[in-house]
Amino acid sequence: MFVNQDLKILGETIKPGQQAEVSFNVAKLHTRTPVDVPIIISRSKKPGPTVLFTAGIHGDEVNGIEIVRQLISKGINKPKIGTTICIPVLNIFGFINMEREFPDGRDLNRVFPGIKNGSLASRVAYEIINEVVTHVDFIVDFHTGGAYRFNAPQIRIEYGNEDDDVMAEIFGAPFILYSKNLNKSFRNTCNKMGKPILLYEGGKSFHIDSNITNTGVNGAKRILNHFGMLRKPFNVSEPKKSCVKITKSKWIRANYSGMFKSTIKLGVQVNTGDTIGNITDPYGKFNHFVRATHSGYIININQSPIVYQGDALFHISTEIID
After folding, report:
1. Is 257 in the same domain as 222?
2. Of 163, 191, 226, at which residue does a domain stop?
3. What is the overall mean pLDDT for the chain?
4. b/e map of 47-59 (b: 16 or more CB within 10 Å)?
5. How far apart are CA 64 and CA 78, in angstroms?
6. Which of 71, 145, 147, 303 gives 76 a disulfide partner, CB atoms 3.0 to 4.6 angstroms apart?
7. pTM of the model as a whole
């Protein structure tokens, strides 16, 4: 049973029915210019759950940032009941510099739950957990594939949690990828706190893709609708296809260095021996066909035009749940 009471975040009090933008003062640049992380809070007068949408934990993952931006700009974040909290850019330093890490070289997603007087990244993690996450009931964290590696839209959760399974299916991404929680990650810390979290992966860094962002926005709407928080006139649509649940997967790696081109679409099912790409040299003397070493769904494609021997080219499922 939810009770409508004042919400206190970073020294600010937000009452039921109020909208607020709270500034999380991270630190200052070396020029002494202050750097703030805006936290957008929207509350209904009616009691209900508190849902947190986060993105930009890695500063170069702009697809996720664009998804949360759309939730705010379209007013999807204004709830019928309960509260939404949106943090479009967790790693503001990385976003400013278009880099994955913090200025101290640390990966924010490897220092949770953080230390109050630790490194810069650790201090930010500490504030996020203690000032924001403690207040929420459900979290959706938006991520993107690394440079050149384009992820199919997917939800990542740990295997064996039925509640997470239900929420992942409600979100409606084409794929659910079961993966272990990494030590000191945001997802692992939230799970240890008893805070349910879905991690959405889609696209690649330094890039905004409309299919990836649309899937993310629609998934967020389905989650809000499930909790009775989605206002009219927003509607939810059923996913075009049922989620494919992947329990194991494997990378196909380059046997040769050269110029690389994929010849298969992301998300499709392939069979052992299918030609899925080719590696050539710049001089027209060499052409190696990359073939699927096993059957499965293509869930990631390396889109770099140049690859070296041993580079990961295709991520393909090996075991799925029917």
Report:
1. no
2. 226
3. 95
4. ebbbbbbbbbbbb
5. 19
6. 71
7. 0.96
